Amino acid sequence: MKPLVDSFKKYLVDSGNEKVLNKIELRLRGNGYFDESGKIKDNYLEEYFNMFSDLVDANEVSLKEDNVGSLKKSFTDFF
Question: What is the pTM of this model?
């Protein structure tokens, strides 16, 4: 799951949605999903996608389809 999350985070930054990533990580930290060293706990990795979905539902995300190639490959490789 970690390689998929890493690709997702890279996609957000590359597509100009670094603020979205910051919102997600702020919420993750607030919920206690990061350990003392600042890394997300393995059992909470999927929360990146859950929180992203919440932001999409709230129309707080602007997606650029021309940057989804690497993300699509990561999902395909994972599944």
Answer: 0.77
